[in-house]
Each structure stands twice: as structure tokens, then as C-alpha cells.
Helicase-related protein
Amino acid sequence: MSSMTQDGRITAMLGPTNTGKTYLAIERMLGHASGMIGFPLRLLARENYDRIVALKGKHAVALITGEEKILPPRARYFVCTVESMPTDRFVDFLAVDEIQLCGDRERGHVFTDRLLHARGRQETMFLGSDIIRPLLKKLVPKAEIVTRQRLSKLSYTGPRKLTRLPRRSAIVAFSAADVYVLAEIVRRQRGGAAVVLGALSPRARNAQVAMYQEGEVDYLIATDAIGMGLNMDVDHVAFAEDMKFDGRAPRRLTPPEMAQIAGRAGRHMNDGTFGVTADCPPLDEEMVEALESHSFDPLRHVYWRNSRLSFGSLGLLRRSLETHSEEPHVIRKRDAEDQRTLEAMARIEAVQDRATSPDRVKLLWDICQIPDFRKTMSESHAQLLSKIFFDLTDGPERLATDWVANQVKRHDRTDGDIDTLVNRIAHIRTWTYITHRGDWVSDPVHWQASTRAVEDRLSDALHDKLTQRFVDKRAALFMRKLKDGGSLSAAVKSDSTVVVEGHAVGHMEGLKFVPDVVDSANAKPVLTAARKVLPEELARRTGQIEAADNAAFSVGPKGSVVWLGAEIARLEAGADILSPQIRVANEEMLEGELRKRIETRLRTWLTGETQERLGPLLEIKQAELEGAARGIAFQVLEGIGGVSSDKVSSLRRDLDDEQRKSLARLGIRFGTETVFLPVLLKPKAVEFRAMLWSVFSGQFPEEGPPPAGRVMVTRAEDASDEFYLAIGYKRVGGHAVRADMLERVAQMVRQAAREGAFAISADMLSLAGVGHEAMAAILTDLGYRRGEDVEEEPRFIPRRREPKRRPEGEQKPKGGKPRQQTGEGGEKRERKGGPRKPKRKEGGPRGPKVISSKEPAMRPEDSPFAVLQQLKLAK
């Protein structure tokens, strides 16, 4: 690079994006024997380096960026970032891209320096936006300005929902967090997106862009990094926001900045569009007009900093950085990162003591230019730079090899999330920059290769993480095939997985297809393809159901019928409690004939289950009974094997001996509290009874029946007394007690009561399995009340109704008429209630002893016998 010679030609090629400026500049450079071109981004430099290598070969092309240097011995063409352009190298051709960045607050001073001083011996070209034209004429009056017109039309399409953006869209946000949020939404709705951030390494960025360019994804989510000439096939640019943080404060994008980004839409002769999405407000007419016509207000000033620095002392260096320009439209850059770092270092006394010679001051300035790629200017970065300065000014004046190795090794890890990997890449980029200063480290070639290898590993891991998080490869494949007009093939695997084009899109649960593609824009064609194979699969499964053993089916929660772990039908209330209906799952692909075949098989299974678990109850249903026995049988059937004793007390009194024997042969046992079938108190029968009652009543207590073998449980709040009676339990004292155990407890209490007032005994507590308080509650529900305490121990007596007082000398006779009592020695009164029953024959059956009570008169329609007229038992 040298000052312009008398014969050197200077050209400023200005115009909007997609004018072919960069392509022409590279073509011009390759027409010379040597050349150099500076780009605003490392990513862009790498992209164009690869293009030129493809044309001229690796031996002829060098790449120079802050943290990457590829310098073949006989390189003729140098591709650089603007900051890294070597100022001491002479070339025939020189170009600087995006020269309008002279007006950028952060980096403008570097571009302005190149505009003023960078020249090729034969030809110099400055490429950029037309907004710099007036200032460029003033600063480089001999430059020939050539205006280039955009090759395609750029049009505004207004706001669109994120999910309605066309394919081949780039969606622009200005923070990594916002980029991630947008990418997540696009992944869910459109299958995925590539992600481009300024913090990505070239390798990770190229891998992401390759997915987009090759059509694996149709959407790109990026920061404004894409505005700086990154060439991709973008048809539409959508701004998700129009505010960015410029290092100082959030501000709205300027029209030229928006144009730089929007101009990425449309390639070569293909027209492009731009618009807004997400929370970005619509663009006003003035902005739209400016972007479509590429007409913007020119730059009013450029940033500049003195590049002829004095290294005589630390003070001279600081003063030379403060030099002002005499041009009114040139503003001195005051707070560049390297200058702020210098000011911080200069306040350290140990640094002042060592920076006492021009070489030391120059070294300090070079160290201050080590970039903090995390963009945080943290204390840890300042500490790192201080240590580097101290090490390079002490002893061998090299960084200790062990220390460098430890620093590199710290970041050589590929675990962690996206932000962790991005942070590690930022750290290793700093070390890559340091190792490219060959006079700072021992064996620089080794360390350059080491840091590059670490960065590559981190970049590959980052690309994988980005892809895993933001790309649904399955949906991306479907999109490509559908876009090409192809059809999708589907199949059902042996493990019930439904696959389309080899990718799982759902699975079969019994007779139901459960898709896991539900929120993608391509869900409809994918599910359509999957459903094409369902009729054949459902027919195959119907055959499996028909051939399956009864053991393959079970009753699940809320009356569901389960096969292979999945619900295939439900039980619903039928004509009576023992005859539930079977409703096969309402799957739209299940044909009527298949449904009937499944219902027939399940009916056979249910009949077998009912016979196996409730066989004695079915015998009662078929029994030929008459009179009171018939009425009791009906009540037991309605109660699925159990009924409260007081509900059939009147029927029970009317049983004759033969009827009692008939009921006993059917397994029915009469207790003082319940009438029940002991055989139906087994766990499997109890579980089945609970299911039948719940299906018929529509009530499904959350806790369900008691655990197998439990004879007493605390009564569940949502379970009714009817539920417990139906499963062979009865509620007493806040507990549900199994019928047989309840009768044992009641019998023990009756025996104690025969002796008069009684106390709760240890035997009672042991048999009931409860404490004193709970036992007292049980006694209350069994018809006892607390009497007088004896020695502070409660006593219980039967609870009886108080008789009505009658006039003295009268008794209530049969028929309700009073009669005179006989005097002492008078005739014996007739027994109340009629003649005494004959004595039981020796060896004959004894009916269970009950505590009887008088029943009020009952109307004919209230009599339990009223239902017998409609009860039809098998003859």
C-alpha cells in the first residue's frame, strides 16, 4: 500500500446493493499482477477469499483478518478486513468495500484513513453507497465517480405475520436473543431456519448459510450482518424490528442502514421485496419511497483519527491520538475501543514504569488493539492485556508456553448450550489474534494451528446446536420434496411408529394415530401421507384383536378398554348395571365393518370377564325364585352383590324356611348390617364391581376401590355410600368396612352388649384395626350410644327409642283398642303379635339373629314387592 502516484487511477463506484460492484472490483483486481481488497467483515473477507482461491489457487491468495492469517510465500492477491489491510505492502490494485462506513461512529475512522491514504500503484477503487458522494469529492477530489444502477427492482410489501412470510425470506433482528426467539417460531411453523450472527465464526456461519443456500431450510434469521454484502439467494427481507443498540443507546435505523439490509432481497436480475413482521411497525411512506428509489440524504461528516502516531512516550502517544482535523466535515473519533483500553492501562503504575521507550510504548499500543470479541470491555479483558504486557516486557519477552496452553485448553470444550459455545468462540478468537503476532509467542505456527483447531471444533459444535434447536430436519425434508412437486411415502413400523419418507411423524396407540407433526405449515400433506397407510394397518390390528386371548384386554381408568397398553373402546351404561355397552374408539379411518368385528370380540371378552368375576351374581339372575326371595334377589342384583340390611328388612321377615335355603344355596348371606355374597368380596370381583357401578352411574371416585386385601379404609370424600355398598363395603364411623369384617365387629359388640353397658375392648380394637376414637364412631353408626363413664372409661349402651306414655292402667292391645290389665294371679295375656312360632327342628337351619324394630305402615306402591311385578327371572 502506498501513497497515490501521479499516474494511478482512483475510481469511486457508488450505488445501491445488487449492482455488481464487488464482482467488478474482484474482476479488476485479478486483471492486475497484484492486488488487495478490504472488506468490512471477517465473514465477507473469508467468503471472497474462497471465491478468489477457486479462480487463482491457494498459492496466489492471502487472507488477512484480525484472527486469521493465510500468507503463502508468493501470494499476489490479499483479501483482508479493512482494519487488517497491511499498510506497508505495495500492490498494483487496491479496493475498499462499503466505503460509506466512513460515517460509522464505531469504525468510521479506519475507513476514512483508508480513503485518505490507501492506494494501489496503478488503480484504486472505493465501493459503497451513493450517500458518501459529496464528502468523497471533497476528500479525494481526483477520484472518478461512477454510478451503478441496481440490477433488479426492490418493492415494499407491507407487514406480514411471521408465519405467513414467503419462502426464501431473511428475517432481521438486532440481538442474539431476538434472533433465537424468531428462529424458534419459524422452526415450529415452517420446519426451521438458518441463523447468522456477527458472533459466529466463519466456519459456523458458512455451515448455517449452506443449509439455506442448499434449500434445507427456506428461512434465514440474521442480524444486520447480512447487510454487508453477504451474498445469498434472498427473495424477501422482513424487518422484525427497526431499533438497534449502537453501543451507546437504542436508536432507530437510518434509511441508508435499512436500505443496506433490505437490498439483500433480489439477486442479479431477480426482483426482491421487503417488509416488516413481528412487532415492527409499518414503514412510513417517506421511508418506503427512499428505499425503493435508493435516494437518501448524503453523509454530513466522516469520522477520523490521526494515524501518524508518536511513540516517543506514553504521553506523546495519548496526545497524538487527540489530534484534531482541520476539515469541518471530519470529526475526530474520541472513544475507540483501543484508545479506551490505552487510557485504562495508562492509569496502572506498573505499566507507566515499563512503558518508558518507544518500543515499549508501541508494544503497549499493539496490545491495546487486541479485540474483546465479547464486546463487553470487562475487567477480565483488561487483566488479560495487562498480563500480556508484563510478560512481553519481562524476561524472555515471550508469553509463557504453559500459560498459553492452559488458556487455550480452557476453551477447548464442546459441551454447553449455544450461548456458552458462542462465548468460548469469542475467547478463542482473542487467542487466535494473539498467536498471529509471531513475536509474542514461541512456535507461533503451532499455536495458530491449535487455536484454529479449537475454533473449528467449537464452530462445528455450535452449528450442530443451532441446527438441533432451530431446524426440524424432518419437516425441512418434507418441504423440499413438496416444493419439487413430489409425493410423500409412508409406512407403519413394527414398533407402531408411523414414518413418512423414513422420518417418524407419529405412532399408533391401539386404533388411534397420534401425530407429532401438529404445528408445522406442512403438517397437512405429511398427515395426509401418513393416513394413507392407516386403513391397511387398522384392518391388520382388527385381526390381531379378534385373535387375541382375553388376557390381552383389560379395563382401564373411567371404563376404558385397553389393548396393548392403549385405549380402544369405552364401556358405557347399558340396560342394567350388569350389561354395559361397548363403544369402540371413534377413529375416522376405522370402517364400519371393522368396528363391528371389534365390538363383537370385546363383547365376548366382557361376557367372559363378567362370568369369571361375578359368576355367582349371574346365577342369582337366572335363579327361579318367588315371593320375598325374589324381591331380595332383585335388590342384591341391583347392588351388584350387596345391599344394606335395613333396605330388605321387611322382605326378610316374610321369608319362609325354603326361601331362606334357596338364597343360602345361591351364596347370599344375611348380616345385621348388610346382605352380601362372601365370594364377591375377593379383590378381582371388588375391582370389577367398582367398574360396573361407575360406568352405570357415571361417577368415578378418584381413589377407586380399596387396595387388594384391605378390609377397612378411610372413606374417600368423593365416594358415595352407594359406591361402597356396591363393592361390598359399608360406611361406618368415617370408614368403609368390608361386609364380612363389619359383621364380625357387630357380632362382637352385640355379645358385649348382652352384659349391659360395655367399654371398648382391646379385642374390638384389634379386630377393627382402629383406635378408640374411630371405634366410638363405629359404635354410634352400629346403633349404640355413650352412657355413663365408669372410672373415667366410656361405656356404651344400645340406642333405643323412648316409648310413648299411656294412661296408667292401660296397655295398647292388638288392634289398637285399650283393655284392662289382669290383676295379680289373673289370666295370662295373649302374646303380642299373634301365636308363638313353632320351635326349630333339630338340625334345621337357623336364621341370623337381628335387632328388630317396628316398621311404620307402608303404602302398596312403596312396598318392595311392587317391583316384583316387573321383575322377570328365568323360569
